[in-house]
Amino acid sequence: MNKFMGIGTLSRDGRLNGKDKNVLRFTLATPLGKNKKTKKERFAYVPCVVFRPSEDIVRMLTENTKNLQIGLQGKVNTSRFESKGQTKYATDVIVDENTIKVVEDDAISANENAEEGTKAA
User: Checking CA distances to 83, which of 33, 34, 51, 116 falls within 20 to 30 Å?
Assistant: First the structure.
């Protein structure tokens, strides 16, 4: 099964690409926990793609996204392409637009507390 599920914040406003501006790209910053030595929060930066996004999704992910937390689901996709005579590889999450939801801080805290309770048991 190829399924990605993530909650995080946008690292910057999403951007439309493609000939007809029908590809929305953004990066989801997901917390990995704190560095044991420095005590600083670490993040994974997950490149995401939505094909043929609705106007609502474009507006949500390209305008005023500072501190916007979202949850989403998709499939991990790898691709290969040529750039300046060299073969390059990329890994993206192809997001199912219908799964993109704004997540409130309270919901994340409740989920984290539930997970910690499960670990303690």
Answer: 51
- What average pLDDT does range 37-46 have in this prediction? 93
Nearest in space to 90 (alpha carbons), one of 48, 32, 30, 31: 48
Maximum distance among all Cα pairs of the chain, rounded to whole angstroms: 55
Please identify which residue in the block is written with the tokens 């043929």. Answer: 52
Report the predicted TM-score, pTM, of the whole model to 2 decimal places. 0.79
What token pair was written down for 79? 């691709």
Q: Which amino acid is at 118?
A: T
CATH number of 4-120: 2.40.50.140
Cα separation, 85 vs 36, whole angstroms: 41
Q: What is the pLDDT of residues 89-100, one digit of tens each?
A: 999 999 999 999
